[in-house]
Amino acid sequence: MPELPEVEVTRRGLEAPLTGATIASLRMGKPLRWPLGIAPQMLQGAVIASVQRRAKYVVLQLGNDRGVLLLHLGMSGRLEWLMNPVAPGAHDHVDIITDRGLLRLHDPRRFGAVVWSASTAVPPASKLLGHLGVEPLTDAFTADGFWAALKAARAPIKPVLLAGHLVVGVGNIYACEALFEAGIRPTVRAERLSRPRVARLHAAIQRILTLAIAQGGSSLKDFAAVDGQAGGFQKIVQVYGRAGKPCRVCAEPIQVMRQAQRATYYCSRCQCF
DNA sequence: CGGCCGACCTGCGGGC
DNA sequence: TGCCCGCAGGTCGGCC
User: Fold this and answer.
1) CB count, 10 Å around CB of A51?
2) Are A21 and A98 in contact (CB under 8 A)?
């Protein structure tokens, strides 16, 4: 679930309560995708200096050179901010207890993780963040740069977007939606997209992600913001999850196919390039 | 190096 | 009703 918009909605919800908070202790439950990488008690007394985001990671910068905590939501994770903590449930695998409240990772499938690193330039953080592409909602993401990068790709555009090597944060929902908005067929080879089409895709990615953030993200199943509020983007999707239903633009039934083991939804009439 | 595939784990919905 | 299969928002490592 959690693509860039959901992670950004989560980050925004944590910024005010967590910035300046002091970690009192950590409770680690069942193992997640990666180990924490440090004894939990070593983080006691660390101050959370800032709450940032890189791709689909929430990055907690710890003051006094105490490193960083990378939080990843995997497929089914969400972070909860609890002022009045309740006992953890079966899928609550990490509690970060601070002097202001409790940050809890709820993740039924356990593809998520909380990873400590001495800095983002040092393993394991560098390994997780090092190969990531450009942030799509910054000035570093330009149509020209995107076009040049796509020219060097050798695969259909949809899996290229999902890979995150060129541009980050675009997962299955938003890849399908951005390609629909740009009128581009998901199977077109990335390197064959014309400059004007890449410009449309560039604009579509930025618009869709921005819209999704404003909608509070997509809540297909598990996702909610840190205050428990569900997102609303799933109500306004054009193609994702709408196989067989009429296209909202041309009424043609939405198609579904598989690319690189992932479902791809598209309109064969609106997406003809 | 780039791209494809399996694997990780749990829950749910559909078909029989 | 109950079981089995397939599928789900991500992404890493191994293998061409």
Assistant:
1) 21
2) yes
CA of A3 to C1' of C7 (A): 19
pLDDT over 90 at A221, yes or no: no
pLDDT recorded at residue A1: 60
For A202, which DSSP code?
H
A109 CA, B15 C1': separation in Å? Answer: 25
Say what the pTM is: 0.97
Clarify whether A135 is annotated catalytic: no
State yes or no: is A181 an active-site residue: no
Say which amino acid occupies A211. Answer: L
How far, CA to CA in Å, does A107 sit from each of A72, A218, A228?
Answer: 10, 16, 14
pLDDT in tens, A107-134: 999 999 999 999 999 988 999 998 999 9
Q: Is the CB of A59 under 7 A from strand C?
A: no
A201 CB-near residues (< 8 Å, 6+ apart): A146, A157, A178, A179, A182, A184, A193
Identify whether A104 is a catalytic site residue: no
Run of H or E including A78: strand A78-82
Q: Which nucleotides of C are covered by protein (CB under 7 A)?
A: 7-13
